[in-house]
User: Fold these one by one.
Assistant:
Number 1:
Amino acid sequence: MELNFGPEYDDFRAEVRNFCNTLGKQTQHGSIRLGEFRPSQQMLDWQGTLIEHGYAARSIPKEYGGFGAKPDIVKSLIISEEFVRSGTRGGIQNQGISMLVPTFLEVGTEEQRQKYIKPTIHGDMIWCQGYSEPGSGSDLASLKTKGVVEGDNFIVNGQKVWTSSAQFSDMCFILVRTEPDAAKHHGISYLLMSMEEPGIEIRPLVTMTGEAFFNEMFLSDVKIPVGNIVGKRGEGWRVANVTLKYERGMIANPGASASGIRGVADMMHEETLSGVRAIDLPVFRDRLVKLQARSLANKYHGLRLLSNDINKESTGVEGLIVKLSATYLSYDIYSLAVDVLGEFGTLYDGSVYQRSKDWMRQYISSFMGIIGGGTAQIQKNVISERGLGLPREPLVKLDKNGWELLKK
Ligand SMILES: Cc1cc2nc3c(=O)[nH]c(=O)nc-3n(C[C@H](O)[C@H](O)[C@H](O)COP(=O)(O)OP(=O)(O)OC[C@H]3O[C@@H](n4cnc5c(N)ncnc54)[C@H](O)[C@@H]3O)c2cc1C
């Protein structure tokens, strides 16, 4: 594999490294967790600086408030590597920026791009994702929230669940059944709902981190203008899948595993067990090295995707494994941290005895990636059926009489 990107890229790397070593070093502010809070003014200012230098919203056209560079995956990779290497804080990642903006660029209208992209990438407009419902998570296309056209509006009724950061959001991209007579995948529309509308009730759900990260969202006669639709009526499933593609990419960020391993390795140099540094204990060292190997495998797999993309040689299956392998890797990295620290590893948020970092929070949070954006089991189904061409899983129905096989 050719890993030298050439002199143009060496210059670019030097430029990014210089930015990280100067401006990057001056920005010591707390982190924002994915989709959780509204960004502080400091975060918004840093986001502005990153966009100005082309280290966030890099390939978003200038007319939509981005940096306006030609898409170049190698440069994006270099930025990510240099930011991780130097510990420089990257741009804001949330559902609006990482999932909806690319959806607008791929399938939105010009009016939607003009109206929404700039405030979203600058962190001024926060979005939540109204997909899951009770009983419609993995089987998302069975969703029941209803939208009926009355005059200039859809009138929406139903319930969503696990809606991350709904309580902090200005807008929601929401899936609604608007064509009740169509087959389930063809009756859904993808709408843009203002969270200011009357009829939206948000009930926070407390997760095992102790925080109300996501919510139940009850909708009673909520008005959404008929123009607030992405794609056509009844074609929302296709648009929803465009967004899901970007969601999986966001969750499987390779930079995150590299910086996670680095953090655990640093901690293992500091911590001792019976006077021996954790890094020198074979049982932990062995696990660390295996994780490093998996992280490198993911990185080189990313490069393989890159060359396939450039050479237009994608077979499809290689892109499907990324979320599955990255999320399990993240889980295994933080499991190691918790195991190394023994009883200290179980301490949580603000304990005076806590060591170096909130490892237990990282560990618990790593479950989120395995479930969110489609569970690991669903990813495995997708890989086997769509990627490897194995037989589809049989369709079964469960009622009081037991299981019934609907389709083999
Ligand atoms: C941190 C986090 C944030 C989230 N944020 C949002 C959000 O902002 N907006 C939103 O709409 N949703 C959000 N979700 C919801 C998420 O998309 C769903 O949890 C996920 O799709 C699974 O759906 P479910 O919870 O209904 O589980 P279910 O679909 O009920 O699945 C339960 C279990 O059964 C397994 N299973 C189900 N069907 C199959 C099958 N066919 N084959 C094999 N196994 C199967 C699943 O893998 C899982 O283990 C979030 C979830 C998490 C964890």
Number 2:
Amino acid sequence: MKKVIELKKLSKNFRIHKREQGLIGSVKALFKREYKTIEAVKKVSFDIEEGELVGFIGPNGAGKTTTLKMLSGLLYPSSGNCQVLGFRPVERKYEFLKQISLVMGQKNQLWWDLPAIETFVLNKEIYEVSDEDYKEILNELAEMLDVKEVMHQQVRKMSLGQRMKCELIASLIHKPKVLFLDEPTIGLDVVMQKKVREFILEYNRKYKATVILTSHYMDDVKEICKRIIIIDKGVIVFDGSIEKLIKKYANYKVLIPIFNGKVDSERLTKIGEVIENNGIRAVIKVGRKEVPKKASELLHEFDVDDLDINEPRLEDVVREMFGKVTIRE
Ligand SMILES: Nc1ncnc2c1ncn2[C@@H]1O[C@H](COP(=O)(O)OP(=O)(O)OP(=O)(O)O)[C@@H](O)[C@H]1O
Ligand SMILES: [Mg+2]
């Protein structure tokens, strides 16, 4: 398979003014500026192959946006290298820009006072998309996202979800081969989140596009990404499948018994840590190795109607990972 994105020890430091609080701090800063360096991205290395759809996750301030900005050429790396489609992003060659797109959920590119379609036309011109190709792709995208009517409306009158869908179309008019999606589902309701991520998957499959997606909603990555890369404090702490992540970092499974009669949580503590219990249905955390023993204990000592044994949820594993700082590959 062809490597489309390559990062080698990519780092980014920001130098910021260190200022003491209050008036005295402001006055002092007038005479002597002190600087502090923030290592936002530290020696990050990974490769992404053509057509991969990779979830890039991590807590606030971990370095996700900074990495995506370097990959799309908006920020100059402090050290290390990155290549996208064989180009050095920071050169921002037209041939490079024609093949990528960066979508930021928190920023918008659509013209506020005009119908969304006007921005699409503008992008068509910028990227020199032929009339024929434009018609075809717009038709397909508008159909896939169900905005055929809405896109003729003034952007300011759109709902957040409608606007996000049009943002996506505006970013895809030139059919980019590589897509950097920075929190494209932020602020959307659950139904709209699902629609947007299904669209991303469809776009990835249909055009064999390579996609890096960041999100704080674990459903986004869980449902469409086979591979996830986790960054924490600028360092990659995990790169692999969700199954591997769960096996590696969660040393427990969850037993979910359904009882025939009411059972107190107190009695269940001998099985494991009771996370939830409404008397009839309980969720109990049990060490991976103890699962057979504890499951049989549960079945013998309680009146169990049904029992599920599940892997922990991705969101719980990730939450626990970021709670501890010690996890490193
Ligand atoms: N232009 C900048 N100047 C100074 N510091 C910056 C700049 N941009 C980002 N940072 C800092 O770099 C670090 C990484 O920020 P970044 O935006 O990449 O995080 P993130 O992973 O995208 O977080 P979030 O999930 O909140 O979007 C943070 O400490 C941030 O404050
Ligand atoms: Mg960010």
